[in-house]
Amino acid sequence: MSTTGRQVLRRSIAGQRRSVVLAALLTAGHQGGEALVPVVIGVVIDQAVAGRSAGTLVLWLVVLGVLFAALSTSYRLGARFGERAAERAAHDLRLDVGRRVLHPGGVAGSGTLAGELVNIGTSDAKRVGTVNGVLPFGVAGLAGLLVSAVALLTMSLPLGLLVLLGTPPMLYLAHLIGKPLERRSEAEQERSAFASGVATDLVAGLRVLKGIGAERAAVDRYRRTSQDSLRATLRAARAQAWHNGALLALTGIFIAVVALVGGTLAAAGDISVGDLVAAVGLAQYLITPFTIFSWVNGELAQGRASAARVADVLNAAPAVGGGDAVLPVPAAGHVKLSALNRGALRDVGFEARPGELLGVVATDPAAATDLLDCLGRAADPAGGSVSVDSVDLSTVDPSRVREVVLVAAHDADLFAGTVADNIETGPKTAEAITAAAVDEVASALPDGVATAVTERGRSLSGGQRQRVALARALAADAPVLVLHDPTTAVDTVTEARIAAGLAALRRGRTTILVTTSPALLAATDRVVLLDDGRVAGEGSHAELTARPDYRAAVLS
């Protein structure tokens, strides 16, 4: 069942119910006490000042002191519980978004940029979590209004009714005024998230852009995207200003009416001087709850817009479904493709026998990508099947597939940390470092494998990154390892060493090398040639070099 933005908000609040309730009770006590301050001052005027009683004056001043101490304590504790609820709710939402983005089933047809997902998982999650922090203050504002109304009713029935009957229309108008802000806030978040996504992509591809001289085109693209985001932000800011100004004007009119009625009653002798002072003080106090309502309404509008964006991510359909079939343990690693059709692949059929080092040469890069997706179950075939040890992978849960089949893509990223942190993924770390020639990389680094690596490994050269990524894949010691062009940025001497190390380390384990590297293909047991998405031939590397199409793909 799909999740709506409203349901996201409800779950966020329900998950922090205890903290929200405690915050609401404490802040309600605070606002109720604030409303009582002018009432107590009115009592002081009537009973102590007018009666000229020093003892009564001291007594009520002590009462005021106790009241202010209680106000300070309740506010501090209420704000603390509210902030805790907001931060914990935002944290839980970030985890939900992260789990969905990292779900083994992936996301089908997602055009969402990585930076946009980051924006949703951070900024939008925070805005939704903030709702937990502002709701208690909304309740507190209502409590303050209620205390004010009761106090005014005890002084004068017309004053009390004015507040009680005038508040609901004010709240409804505040809700209507917040609608444009909600719409523009959603547009602002969408534009901001898209700009973040574009910026992330441009930074990630900075070296490529410089290499092809496309810096100006990239800057122009980001400038347009950023300007769109700026315009959306300015529209949202204008909506926020109009929202706050309109509510402030409504509040001022309402307070003026209360003060006018109170002054008329005092002039007629229907209420005392102390009651008039209390009524005017309460009228001024009413600015506080209505200001709170303005703030809460604006935060709720932004929270609803962000919750809808979070819901879109949580509702994203998986690229592949689950499965109940079980792969054998330990897996022998017999991979078989039967009449496989997907994207650029046409009736592809071949097998990798247990323990075999199989090379696959694809003349079409799209065919190689589709093959990798099917082997790792990032996507299911449109026709045919991929099986491991006679078990169709489309019937196995994706997370279980990846316990047996590890696909190391050509563009694998490194993570911030040390070189060693990026490699230590399995039982054969030391052997993998040697096989992938990372020991040579380490010797050129200031702290060896303990050298820090920046985000995505940008502090390393292209060849160094590739070798570290290959070592990470080898260290996992998966029963079936699929590698895609792991040495394109490596010199020929190092590539020959890696080919020998790879063949030795993976002996007895099934390995599929999707590559056009002659050095790697020469180390394989057998090679399958895919031309125009179809199997065009099989044999050893030496045998296939007699074919013109193979030579064109490998030796050109």
Characterise the protein shown here.
With 556 residues, this protein is α/β, with parallel strands linked by helices. It has two domains: 1-156 and 286-319, ABC transporter transmembrane region fold (Up-down Bundle); 335-555, P-loop containing nucleotide triphosphate hydrolases (Rossmann fold, 3-Layer(aba) Sandwich), CATH 3.40.50. Helix content is 65%, strand content 11%. It has 19 helices and twelve strands. The protein has helices spanning 5-15, 17-49, 54-101, 114-155, 157-204, 206-211, 215-267, 273-285, 287-314, 365-375, 398-404, 419-423, 429-435, 438-443, 462-475, 492-505, 518-522, 541-544, 548-554, and strands at 335-342, 345-352, 357-362, 383-388, 391-392, 405-408, 417-418, 452-453, 480-484, 510-514, 526-531, 534-539. Strands 6-9-10-3-11-12 form a six-stranded mixed beta sheet, sandwiched between helices. A four-stranded antiparallel beta sheet has the order 2-1-4-5. Strand 1 (335-342) and strand 2 form a beta hairpin. It is elongated, with a radius of gyration of 34 Å. One of its GO terms (cellular component) is plasma membrane.
Oligomerization state of this entry? single chain
Query: How many distinct beta strands?
Result: 12
The computed structural class is alpha/beta
Shape: elongated
> Which radius of gyration do the C-alpha atoms yield?
34 Å
Q: How many separate helices?
A: 19
Percentage of residues in strands:
5-15%
| Relative helix content | 55-70%
At the first level of CATH, the class of the largest domain is Alpha Beta
The rounded distance between the terminal residues' Cα atoms is 53 Å
What's the arrangement of strands in the largest beta sheet? 6-9-10-3-11-12
Fill in the CATH topology of the largest domain.
Answer: Rossmann fold
Main location: membrane
Protein name: Multidrug ABC transporter ATPase
Transmembrane segments: 20-45, 57-78, 134-153, 159-177, 245-267, 273-296
Keywords: Membrane, Transmembrane, Transmembrane helix
